[in-house]
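Thread: Newbie trying to understand structure tokens

Hi all, I'm a second-year student working on a class project, and my supervisor (Dr. K.) asked me to get a predicted structure for one chain before our next meeting. I've only ever worked with sequences, so writing a 3D structure as a token string is new to me. If someone could post the tokens and maybe explain what I'm looking at, I'd be very grateful. Here's the chain:
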Amino acid sequence: MAQSSQLGEVTEIWRYPIMGLRGEKLPSAEITRNGIIGDRSHAFCDQDTGNVLDPVKYKYGWGETKALPGLLELKAEYFSQPDTHLRITNRDGRGISSKDPAVDTWVGKMIGHEVKLMKSPEIMVEKVERDRTIHLLTTASLRHLKDIYPKGEFDVRRFRPNIVLDTKSDLTGFIEDEWLGETMSLGEKVKLKVGRPNRRCALTTMKQDNITADPEIFKNIILHNKGFLGILCSVSTGGVFRIGDQVSLIS
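---
Reply by user tm_fold:
Sure, no problem. This is what the structure looks like when written as tokens:
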């Protein structure tokens, strides 16, 4: 019979409907082998070259992205379920529907670049192939970084996790790094296989919404954990999970 070791509970769930934009915080989510339904389902592309846009430049199997930091000034969320249209808003609360014919022009003016909104299933396909389906971050790691760098603003939005795990008080430091290769249960059904630690980049330092730019954030992650923060997981068993669900390691 399988034994479990309790780690804590799900305290935040995040979905990012458009690659590179700020995401939406959810009370619950359905997860499949391809991740949280609706996550990274769309992207803005350069209208001339077709290159996918992202706040920083990355190389993917399907191409190289073009860096546009202004994307982080915008937020994307679904009006209801992920099979419906999106709403894109700026910091002032002004927004536009993805069904509006003017959406590309509106966003282009916001970020100073001509764009086209596209469905991009290849983004999540590659994440699955590279065992990057789900990004999980613990409050233990964030508390540890805050202890190291008290002036730092370790808001979870800097790190773009799908799941934030509020760890038990006796779990400290970069605790999730000890779970590599293990299986985690979330609530009654969902099971995740922990793949590898998540290597961070300059995105963690960038200004977004009311979070200030701070290069020391990334420097401290490099100095104290070799540039890693959080873990990347694949989905062993899908289902619905919620804020408050208990999380355990299964052995």
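A couple of things are worth pointing out once you decode it. The helical segments are 103-111, 121-129, 139-148, 215-225. Residues 44 and 117 are 4 Å apart (CA to CA). Feel free to ask follow-ups in this thread.
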